[in-house]
Amino acid sequence: MKNRTFFWFILPSLITMLLFIALPIVSVFVQSLYVEHKAVLIEVENCGPFGCTQEVQVDVAETAKLKEARPLGQFNGFGTYTNRNHLAFAEIGEAWQSSTGVRDLLSKALNLPFYRALAFTLTYTFVVTPLVLVLGFFIALGVNSLPKRIKGPTIFVSLLPMIVTPLIGSLILFWMIDAQGVLGATLQQIFDDPSLSLKASPKLTWIMLMVYGVWHSAPFAFIVFYAGLQTVPADTLEAAMIDGASRWERTRYVVLPHLMPLTVFIALIQLMDNFRVFEPIVGFSAQASATSLSWIIFNDLAGSEGQFFGSAGATSVLTIIGISILLIPVLIRTWRDFNRKVV
Amino acid sequence: MSDIAHRRSPALNAVIWGFVAIWIIAAGFPFLWTLWGSFKVQGDFFSKADWTNAVTGVRTQLETGGAFTGKGYFGAWITNEFWVAALNTGIVVVSVVVISLTLGTLGGYALARSGKKYAFYLLMLALVFRAMPHITLVSGYLLPFFEWNLWGHLPTAIIVMVAINQPFTLWMLHSFFLNIPKDLDESAMVDGCTRFQAFRHVIVPVMWPGVVTTGLFSFLLAYNDFTVTATLLSQANQTMVPKIASFLGTTQTEGNVMFAVAAVVSATAPLFVLVLFFQRQIVSGLTAGAVKG
Fold it and tell me: How far apart are CA A207 and CA B93, in angstroms?
């Protein structure tokens, strides 16, 4: 295709991506260097029946004018990155000095909002991803050995958790396992422990969020593995059978190696998607026990205390750095694939 | 050949059936339960005393006189104007699908036919864009959108979602176009068509299966989105998903949780229908990217 033609074909798509994906990344970085204006204070003399007092007040008009003139706020450099709500250099340094051991240091770090969110995000990503792979693989094996007639309906039901809106899916699960929901209330009765509730226990909340994550993503792994199972070479399987390989050995030494490239594909997609975990935290109203990086950005933007663009920007930049690190293996792999295809 | 060789032991069969049955229950039961519960009153669906209340509907009988009640639906759709949100979702979803497919087919076609190095770099760039958490992008939009008075309107959310959707659409359509033989459009060009004419008259008629599959995923992205719609739309223009979230935030009074339950069921129904009719396309779409590596 001629370069000119290519250019015109790709142009509309490219413009939208540059305007609404590339530019915002730049804009987020710029924002993160600024911080909200401080309110303009004025001293007012307040004279009443008991004499005059000096009082400091916020000059609303002046503050609004300042905001109007420079909506970004005032320049702060990398100050936002290092403050308590983000990388918290001072607090971490102090904890490093004073803490008695690794455990103590960790618990101090986990009291800081950014590290708390990072800890949950990473735990979620690296727990859910392998579980999704394993569960998806076994569902695929199971469904593959069902009689043909019930495969279709089985796949239909299996797709539902993945297709449903994440917020809605998490709400549906939450309503069941909440202290008053069908599972939650029954569990309380079985263990005879009225304090056993999702809201009261951070540990339980973490587990349930991850259960939701596996529930939501397992169908994706299942479908991909299931498609892969249809292409397992029959000859190789038969040869293995003639050599006396048991069912398990055939699965282990023929099927699994055949599915390996798919496993890598699913793992990479899952890493990307799980790293942005957000909706389940809203759905489970779990912010007291678990926050993710995406959630703290959202909270800065739409929280009840107002909007903090600088803070949201800084967390966003840190998140983008995090996702880039996760992405490097994907890029290397695609790069290699492409070069192999060309050769 | 080998029915005997493939025959499984009864024990293994039992394990397989048991496992699949557990998974099916885990995947399907929550939806059934919520659908059932949406026709009950809060005291039954969230019954602390006894879960069988939700099945028999004791409180529902007491409060409304029947075993089922449509109060949740009435409250959500009429009183709380969920229909406005549903309408907004309709507008947003249709626009996003149409626009992103239009841009995506042009771009995907070009990427599939180019064969130049820069086409590959563009695909890699799209992959990086695909990985960006949506909320990080949103935090970049908000301030400029406020400044330019673009915030809160449906078209803004639509164009943003089209853009966020583009990387995925490009990748998917690119791999579909790779499957359409090059000779097809090239022979048209030998006959004197320009590139665009060849695309219009030769490729467009045969591209629909791929476009439908890609369209389904664009639909899902737009329909399921919470991040963009919750942050970029004003109260009046809210779509269904943020509206459901707002039910939870504001409604503390007895019975109002049921509005959210009814709304959740209402919003899930179209997805059910979608899977029912397009199961094959969804499955093929999920595997298209994977099997080709």
Answer: 33
